[in-house]
RNA sequence: UGCGGCGUGGAGCAGCGGUUAGCUCGCCAGGCUCAUAACCUGGAGGUCGCAGGUUCGAUUCCUGCCGCCGCAACCA
């Protein structure tokens, strides 16, 4: 037997200056579905997440709260992980960029780039706010006459200030910083995009980046002077590595790059896919590969930029970006507590195309839940289990000899499974789920109407049994196909009958959906109350909800 | 201003050169009762933003216009 292939998948690391919202969760769920799918496919999968802690904002936020940065970020990291676990995000590692392993790897890396001659020191010119003691961009500057400012020169001339210190005009200050010679990588980057069309996904993002790089790249400042929080530049103790150069490196420092124990790095790098938000595409598709080229490391195989989730206001119907100032942020735990993690995952994966933008409203959430989960999926589960219990005491003797393919007559299941593998493997989750619901779940519901086992039992118990065995098989198939998306529901489905006697649930792969493995006769193993299962997804009635 | 995206029945989305433009929800009418008043069948509802062009043929390709929305270097 050959070595299983590896699959290394990462998400963007988050700033821990506030708790994650549902948009952040969207990314993690999308990555998690992929990780779970690849594990099912037999790949040795490694799923990395983390927090981006070496930022000025984080240290300032900690100071506001009167705590040291380290305990602050540690506390935030545990809060983040708690949310991710509640959503069943199956990460294998969670890196905090304040950890020693990250610091060490970063220093090793920046040294390598320095030694390669791609870093030099030169003056950095920026808008400095004496109140904040930090540089601002022209965009952040507020002009006294309310004008939009495009350049830092314009901002200084207008006497603009930062929003926090309206009485202290911003001035252009120069300081010596280290710069990464990004501009010299333009040709190599373009050649790489050309040779690897799959490097940036989806297609629309790829075009964006190609245009951007064609337009020309500027060298980027990668260090700052005079900060105590962060990673020191190894060849200049007075300087601290600045945000992106540090953040991107988490993908390799988490694997032990530059440390004595770099077995994981050797095994999993290069990454198969970095899952990120569309806003940071350029850093992952231009800066990051250039950094790796400079250090002589292989480039990630692909970057997938997902869309954003916008908040649709129930009253006005207005679609807005979620933000603290508007006060329209929805926290994942709200939804998990009020409903459950499966409903959360289902909503985002089925309603928001991963590569594009999606929207969220409680109204749509309830609608999606009620129709997709309660009526369609949950109800199928109930009726599939009740009948064998009612008519055969839960034991379907002789079922192993029955061919369970009648329920899917007219459906080419093997072809469908192949199609689904392709859809899920390419992040087309909404399409995959719609296909499962339309082709498989609806087929099972229709099969009940066609065979009418509840009537058939009065005249032909043998035929009834055949119908019920078919239904059980449909449940098994559904269980396998939804496993990456709804892991808990999938497991509940699989445990409803003694399917595990034929094949343990954790060994099931997508291809197994198309053919039933030989096994003993079927019997119902679900927990029953008065001969019935409790509804898996009780209907949501928003009007009856106390708040929202 | 530059770059990019979007505009398909009441709502949300597919489709993207070629038989009667699909799907989910909603609506209307039947059927059924195993099931979470669930499920199944049928129906009404669209000149595929507007105007040109390419083509034997365009919702699908090109151009222009209108409307909405992103991005423009550190915002998931």
UniProtKB/TrEMBL annotation:
Biological function: Is required not only for elongation of protein synthesis but also for the initiation of all mRNA translation through initiator tRNA(fMet) aminoacylation.
Name of the molecule in the record: Methionine--tRNA ligase
The Methionyl-tRNA synthetase anticodon-binding domain, residue ranges: 430-503
Membership in a protein family: Belongs to the class-I aminoacyl-tRNA synthetase family.
One of the GO BP terms on file: methionyl-tRNA aminoacylation
CDD domains associated with the record: Anticodon_Ia_Met, MetRS_core
Methionyl/Leucyl tRNA synthetase domain residues: 8-384
Keywords: Aminoacyl-tRNA synthetase, ATP-binding, Ligase, Nucleotide-binding, Protein biosynthesis
UniProt keyword annotation of Ligase present: yes
EC number from the UniProt entry: 6.1.1.10
Molecular function GO labels: ATP binding; methionine-tRNA ligase activity
Enzyme class label: ligase
């Amino acid at each position: 037997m050959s070595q299983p292939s590896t699959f290394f998948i990462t998400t963007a690391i988050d700033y821990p200056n506030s708790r994650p919202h549902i948009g952040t969760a969207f990314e993690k769920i999308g990555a998690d579905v992929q990780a779970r799918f690849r594990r099912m496919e037999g790949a040795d999968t490694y799923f990395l997440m983390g927090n981006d802690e070496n930022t000025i904002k984080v240290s300032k936020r900690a100071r506001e709260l009167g705590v040291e940065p380290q305990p602050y970020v540690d506390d935030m990291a545990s809060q983040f992980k708690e949310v991710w676990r509640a959503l069943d995000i199956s990460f294998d590692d969670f890196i905090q960029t304040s950890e020693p392993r990250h610091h060490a790897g970063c220093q090793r890396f920046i040294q390598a780039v320095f030694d390669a001659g791609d870093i030099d020191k030169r003056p950095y010119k920026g808008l400095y706010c004496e109140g904040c003691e930090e540089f601002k961009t022209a965009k952040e500057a507020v002009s006294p006459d309310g004008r939009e400012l495009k350049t830092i020169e314009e901002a200084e001339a207008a006497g603009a200030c930062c929003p926090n210190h309206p009485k202290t005009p911003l001035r252009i200050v120069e300081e010596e910083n280290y710069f990464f010679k990004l501009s010299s990588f333009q040709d190599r980057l373009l050649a790489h995009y050309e040779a690897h069309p799959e490097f940036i996904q989806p297609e629309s993002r790829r075009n964006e980046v190609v245009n951007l790089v064609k337009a020309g790249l500027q060298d980027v400042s990668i260090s700052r002077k005079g900060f105590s929080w962060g990673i020191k530049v190894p060849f200049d103790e007075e300087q601290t590595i600045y945000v992106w150069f540090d953040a991107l490196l988490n993908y390799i420092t988490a694997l032990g790059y530059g440390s004595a124990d770099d077995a994981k790095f050797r095994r999993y790098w290069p990454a198969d896919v970095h899952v990120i938000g569309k806003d940071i595409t350029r850093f992952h598709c231009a800066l990051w590969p250039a950094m790796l080229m400079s250090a002589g490391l292989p480039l990630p195989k692909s970057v997938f930029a997902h869309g954003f989730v916008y908040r649709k206001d129930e009253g006005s119907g207005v679609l807005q970006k979620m933000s603290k100032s508007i006060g329209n942020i929805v926290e994942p735990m709200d939804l998990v507590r009020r409903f459950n993690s499966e409903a959360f995952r289902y909503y985002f994966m089925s309603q928001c195309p991963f590569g594009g933008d999606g929207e969220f409203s409680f109204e749509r959430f309830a609608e999606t839940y009620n129709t997709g989960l309660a009526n369609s999926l949950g109800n199928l589960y109930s009726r599939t289990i009740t009948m064998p219990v009612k008519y055969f005491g839960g034991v379907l003797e002789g079922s192993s000899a029955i061919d369970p393919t009648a329920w899917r007559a007219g459906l080419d299941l093997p072809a469908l499974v192949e199609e689904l593998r392709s859809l899920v493997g390419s992040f087309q989750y909404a399409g995959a789920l719609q296909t499962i619901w339309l082709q498989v779940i609806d087929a099972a519901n229709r099969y009940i109407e066609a065979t009418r086992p509840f009537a058939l039992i009065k005249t032909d118990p043998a035929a009834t049994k055949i119908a019920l065995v078919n239904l059980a098989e449909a449940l098994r198939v559904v269980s396998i196909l939804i496993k990456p998306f709804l892991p808990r529901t999938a497991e509940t489905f699989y445990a409803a009958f003694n399917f595990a006697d034929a094949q343990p649930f954790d060994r099931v792969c997508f291809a197994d959906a198309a053919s039933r493995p030989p096994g003993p006769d079927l019997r119902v193993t679900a927990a029953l109350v008065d001969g019935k299962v409790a509804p898996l997804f009780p209907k949501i009635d928003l009007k009856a909800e106390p708040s929202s």
